[in-house]
Amino acid sequence: MAKILIIDDDPSILTMLKRMLEKAGYEVDTASNGSEGLVRIESCLPDLLVTDIVMPEKEGLELILYLRKEKPGLKIVAISGGGRFNYEGYLTGAKLLGADLTFQKPLVHKEFIQAISDLLNT
Amino acid sequence: MNIFKNTLNNLLVLSRESSESMTFNKLTLSFTGHLSNYESEFLNDYYVKALNPFRFSLILAMIFYCAFALLDSATVPELKEIFWLIRFAVVLPVLLSVFAFTYFQAFRKYMQLSITAVLFITGFGIIVMIILGARVSNYSYYAGLILIFIFGYTFAKARFIYASLAGWLIVISYEISAIWISETPVRILINNNFFFISSNIIGMLAGYSLELSSRRDFYMRKLLELEQDKVRAVNSTLEKRVIERTQQLTDTNLKLKKEIDVRKRSEKQRSELEAQLFHLKKIETIVTLAGGIAHDFNNILTPILGYADMALEEIPEDSTLRFDLEQINNAALRGKDLVQQILTFSREVNVEKKPVKLDQVVVEVVNLIKPSLPHSIEIKKSIDPGIGMINADPVHMHQIIMNLCTNAIHAMKARGGILDINVDSVLVDQKTTKKITNLKVGIYVRIRLSDTGHGMDRRTKERIFEPFFTSKEVGSGTGLGLSVVHGIISNYNGAITVESTPGKGTLFTVFLPYNTSEPVNDIKSSDQLPRGVEDILFVDDELDITFMGKKMLENLGYKVTTKTNSSEAFEEFKRNPGKYSLLVTDQTMPKMLGTELAGKMRAINPNLKVIIITGYIDKLSDAKKSKSGSYELILKPIKLNEFSKVIRKVLDEK
Q1: Chain B partners of A13 at a C-beta cutoff of 8 Å?
Q2: For residues B561 and B536, what is the distance between their CA atoms, to the nearest angstrom?
Q3: For the ranges B82-91, B308-317, B354-363, B466-475, the one whose mean pLDDT is highest
Q4: What does the pLDDT read at residue B523?
Q5: Chain A residue nearest residue B309, CA to CA
Q6: Could you please report the per-residue DSSP string of B471-495?
Q7: Is residue A104 within 8 angstroms of chain B, CB to CB?
Q8: Which of B11-15, B93-97, B483-487 is least confident?
Q9: How close does chain A come to B297, measured CA to CA in Å?
Q10: pLDDT tens sequence across B257-307
Q11: In this prediction, what percent of chain B has a pLDDT beyond 70?
Q12: How confident is the model at residue B616 (pLDDT cuts 50, 70, 90)?
């Protein structure tokens, strides 16, 4: 069973995504910011990471840049509700820095689950 | 004698007081010192004034001299023949000939001598009569000499010095004759002398004072003239200054008026720009705000949508909760769309620009909306085939046209009407850029979309591009439509303007910059645009326009020389009058109007073809009527398609 780590600073989104992915049959762990996320990655060794971009402590873009170097095998999905001043720039940036998929919040449930499953099967 | 001296002194004192600076010889009375220059002028003046009185006194003297013939026959009848001989044969002819002499030019020179002579001769005649009268003991004729003194010193207008000369000559002659020739008794001699000499002296005084006063008159007149001259000079200087000052004032006034006009105009422009700027600022603020809200909103929507979706998956098909959950889901999806729209309006969507031809977009949109259109609404579209590409995201262009069409249709829903879509390319010049803030000089694709709907008032018009502003009834729209359109157009460095009359309809004009990276190919590839190879002289005082004009015309194959100054253009033309087949000139330029320039060039080369570009309809007709010939006219803004056709037409004319 594939392991997924979710990082988001919004607890309601975190809880919702955890349930959604668990229902889809994955083992899910969570973290509420980038630094915490890095610790979790070392302890639970996930196959896939779902991360928000705009977060306190360590934000998503920095995290992606770091992980792409350190964990080349880890699959990364970036999600974002848009920047305060530059809406789609973050997701474009995430893609450029090495995220495998990007999703605009709010997520459309079926599309999201389907895309995660496709990504894990490649 | 003392009395005489006193009188003389008084007179002198008087004259000295009244004209202190009048300097003259006390004996001859001639002007001296600083006045000596005036002597000849005075004499001349004196002559002119004395001439007629002298003639009159001569006539009077003749009458008296003849009338005394009666006295002769009464007092000395025995001698009357010889007396009459003296009167009529000697003195009268002399007086007559002097009278005649007064009508000659030479008299001017000899007047005073003539008067002296006349006085002496008449006096001498009387002296002869006195001598002869003494023989018959008549000594009374000496009184005649007194009459002569009176004449001589007054009426005869002799000058004092000449009259005195004549007077004393007569006195001496009388003394000689009375003492040595006629042996007059001493008693009578003394008696006569008393009267005689006294009257001569009184006469002298009279003559002296008369001449002195006429000299003083003259002098005063001179002074007056001098003063008058001064006053006149001052006056004319003053008048001149008044005229100058008035002119200056008029000039200043004119300048001031012009300045005020310019001020007013720039003030108006400034306030218009300020309003536009304020409007943009307002939108900018809302955009920033909207961007921030969108982020949070998306985060909020995420769990709503997610949980609703999951719940929908789990509950049985027939559950009554299903409908409720679907409503939550739909509402969240609408929220998602709304955020999307806000973000589009806030220009923060990623744009994939590629060359777009607007005619295709318009056709697509029209096809899309036509089926749902009520019969009362008609769509007209005219698309200039020469409009070329613009660099844009086709989805955005779609959105703009769709949105404007939807608004237009909405406005005509109640009464029906015509939706007119017009697309062409125009050259935007400085005049337009001054009116519309976002534009720069250059070629733009222009979309004009007009409806005959209900229109809108000024207040509505001012706010339609603001997000969340809507004039539609609640539920009909989000109020984001036009602000999104505005956002997209601004993002492409274009501009949108709106004109509207309540009850008549609305016109939206959209300017989108022409794809300047490859305009050449576009125009070249367009077969519809007529081309040529002729030499064209292009004149406009705006450098940007000449630049664009050159580019445009060279793309059509022409050889183009540009000038931004009418006199330079004319110099260039004079150097190569046969080179150019066509002059394209702006009508309104400083120094010389386009028509004037064309007229001057036609005077050199009558075959020169001319196209005048003008921004004003009224000036258009003026130019058409121009004396210097007929010109083809093009109205600003220049449309590429029309322009290329007119050039070809003019060049092909015989």
Answers
A1: 299, 302-303, 306
A2: 6
A3: B82-91
A4: 42
A5: A109
A6: -SPTTS--S-HHHHHHHHHHHTT-E
A7: yes
A8: B11-15
A9: 8
A10: 999 999 998 888 888 888 777 777 777 777 777 777 777 788 888 888 888
A11: 87
A12: low
B582-586 vs B390-392, strand pairing mode: unpaired
Give me the amino acid identity at B72: D
**What share of chain A has pLDDT > 90, as a percent?**
45
Interchain CB distance below 8 Å, A82 and B295: yes
Question: Does B295 contact A84 at a Cβ distance shorter than 8 Å?
Answer: yes
Q: Is B43's Cβ below 8 Å from some Cβ in A?
A: no
CA distance B620 to chain A (A): 50
Contact A16 B298 (CB under 8 A): no
Q: List chain B residues with CB under 8 Å of A84.
A: 291-292, 295
Q: What is the CATH T-level fold of the domain B352-513, as seen in this structure? A: Heat Shock Protein 90 (3.30.565)
Mutate one of B286, B288, B298, B343 to test the A interface: name it (highest A CB count within 10 A): B298
| pLDDT 10s digits, B463-475 | 777 766 666 554 4
Contact list in A for residue B307 (CB cut-off 8 A) is 16
B contacts of A15 (beta carbons < 8 Å): 303
Gap from B642 CA to chain A (nearest CA, Å): 42
- Relative to beta strand B417-428, strand B442-451 is antiparallel
Choice among B78-82, B332-336, B355-359, B515-519 with the minimum mean pLDDT = B515-519
pTM: 0.39
Of B35-49, B357-371, B433-447, which one has max mean pLDDT?
Answer: B35-49
Burial state string for B425-461 with b = 16 or more CB within 10 A and e = fewer than 16:
bbbbbeebbeebebbebbbbbbbbbbbbbbbbeeeee
The answer to whether B306 contacts chain A (CB < 8 Å) is: yes
Q: Determine contact: B38 vs chain A, CB below 8 A.
A: no
Q: What is the ipTM of this complex?
A: 0.73
B303 and A CB contact within 8 Å: yes
**Which residues have C-beta within 8 Å of that of residue B641, sequence separation ≥ 6?**
B384, B385, B386, B387, B424, B425, B528, B529
How do residues B130-169 score in pLDDT, each as one tens digit?
Answer: 888 887 777 788 888 888 888 888 888 889 999 999 999 9
User: Under DSSP, is residue B215 helix (H, G, I), strand (E, B) or coil?
Assistant: helix
Smallest Cβ distance to A88: which of B306, B307, B348?
B348
Length of chain A: 122
Nearest residue of chain B to residue A15 (CA atoms): B303
Residue B620 has pLDDT above 60, yes or no: no
> DSSP label at B177?
I
Superfamily per CATH, domain A3-121: Response regulator (3.40.50.2300)
Q: By the CB < 8 Å criterion, does A83 face chain B?
A: yes
C-alpha span between B643 and B637 (Å, rounded)? 10
The domain limits of chain B are 23-210, 352-513, 529-652
The CATH T-level fold of domain B529-652 is Rossmann fold (3.40.50)
- Is the CB of A105 inside 8 Å of chain B's CB atoms? yes
Q: Are A9 and A52 in contact (CB under 8 A)?
A: yes
**In what order do the strands lie in the sheet containing A27-31?**
A27-31, A3-7, A48-52, A75-80, A101-104
pLDDT above 90 (res B324): no
Q: How far is CA B317 from the centre of its chain?
A: 92
A7 or B185, which is more confident: A7
Between CA B139 and CA B196 the distance in angstroms is 13
- B298, A15: Cβ pair inside 8 Å? no
Q: Do B307 and A105 touch (CB under 8 A)?
A: no
A65 touches chain B (CB under 8 A): no
| Predicted pLDDT of residue B298 | 82
